[in-house]
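Box S1 | Example of a co-folding query
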Amino acid sequence: MNIQNLFRTLISGIVVYGVLLATPVWADNLVNLTSTGASIADGNAACPDQPYFRYVGGDPDNFSNPTDPAYPSPDLATLLITPPSIQGVVDYDVAMNNGRFGDSFNLQNTRSVCYAVIKFRAKNTGDVPSTDGLTIGHVESGGSPFTVVAQVLEPGALPLTQTYAFDATGLALLSGITGGTTPLDSILDVYLQDDAEIDFITLWVWYGPVPSCGGNPSTC
Ligand SMILES: [Ca+2]
Ligand SMILES: [Ca+2]
Ligand SMILES: [Ca+2]
Ligand SMILES: [Ca+2]
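Box S1 (continued) | Returned holo structure for calcium ion
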């Protein structure tokens, strides 16, 4: 993974119930994500008897003014300005051209992750959007390194709302942020560099044993 791909973007939230929309097939641009099984019904089926937590960043208002605030963690805020970009750091609903976007979600949970779905809306707005990426992971103390959990490359190529499920690798890495053997601070960072605009990001997370670990969270 080159440095350009590494720096592709994240956010905060609350518990609610809702309905997911259909997802376009775009597998070539997905890292540790899949368009298969990206629904609440799939998460409920994979993690029986587990409620889901919904984390929301930005308002799904189709990029409308006013801008929606992002709340990057202190470590992500440091990453966003290292080095400074031409445009600077932007919020949701801001056309980005050589800028940086970031938001952080405090997952507030120390259990491993059984299932997770991400939904967002993006569009290309800058000079070379084909090199962009939305990166989901965890920024370490002081702004580096960025532990990558999953990515969507060129997230604005499709002017549509996109919904993906984390694959087995993504779930294992996500569990390293929450309920792994050396859990971090449960903050999930999302980072985007540098030519696309984000309307909103929503995460659904089911906690519990990681399916790929044979149902035993103590072993992974
Ligand atoms: Ca708005
Ligand atoms: Ca650019
Ligand atoms: Ca770019
Ligand atoms: Ca918005």
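The chain has four helices and twelve strands. The first strand starts at residue 13 and ends at 14.
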